[in-house]
């Protein structure tokens, strides 16, 4: 099956994939929870075969694990996994940003500006950091930053890593870790945007790394 590449599902299996993925990322399906096809097909209003196709995609995204003949489970989370995820994302995304800055055209600048403006609107409006309103704009901004990078593999892998990062952001929110420190997310994004638009590779990469690592740092501090 061809992997779904956008958040606009075209088939029943894509719809089931997106809905399951959202519920896992948001914690509605808990880490380690058993995923029984006979129960989930009614919850998501799809057939068993369609649901298995969606679960297979989630296995390849590492959001679901398969246990041989025992079926599927939501992937576990851990601080060790978060550290590894964060280090890997920093390594890939900062280099992708550097390459995007080097190769970005005026169209890249315009699309980055449009993404930043949309994110700014989401962040400055009342309740703008509520995930359902903020997350799509945040995702669009991060994708726009690296849009001029010429590696489809990097973008594919970063898409998977982003979803796992989003999952941990929801964990941080549920645990109250995001309330334990004063954080100006809009200022973080502004610093990245200004440096990227000015073609300041090193400055943009450092700002992006700091931004990515903060969720990890907050959870580590909260659980210490």
UniProtKB/TrEMBL annotation:
<dbReference type="InterPro" id="IPR011711">
    <property type="entry name" value="GntR_C"/>
</dbReference>
<protein>
    <submittedName>
        <fullName>Transcriptional regulator</fullName>
    </submittedName>
</protein>
<keyword id="KW-0238">DNA-binding</keyword>
<dbReference type="Pfam" id="PF00392">
    <property type="entry name" value="GntR"/>
</dbReference>
<dbReference type="Pfam" id="PF07729">
    <property type="entry name" value="FCD"/>
</dbReference>
<keyword id="KW-0805">Transcription regulation</keyword>
<dbReference type="GO" id="GO:0003677">
    <property type="term" value="F:DNA binding"/>
</dbReference>
<dbReference type="InterPro" id="IPR036388">
    <property type="entry name" value="WH-like_DNA-bd_sf"/>
</dbReference>
<feature type="domain" description="HTH gntR-type">
    <location>
        <begin position="10"/>
        <end position="77"/>
    </location>
</feature>
<dbReference type="InterPro" id="IPR000524">
    <property type="entry name" value="Tscrpt_reg_HTH_GntR"/>
</dbReference>
<dbReference type="GO" id="GO:0003700">
    <property type="term" value="F:DNA-binding transcription factor activity"/>
</dbReference>
<keyword id="KW-0804">Transcription</keyword>
<dbReference type="InterPro" id="IPR008920">
    <property type="entry name" value="TF_FadR/GntR_C"/>
</dbReference>
<dbReference type="InterPro" id="IPR036390">
    <property type="entry name" value="WH_DNA-bd_sf"/>
</dbReference>
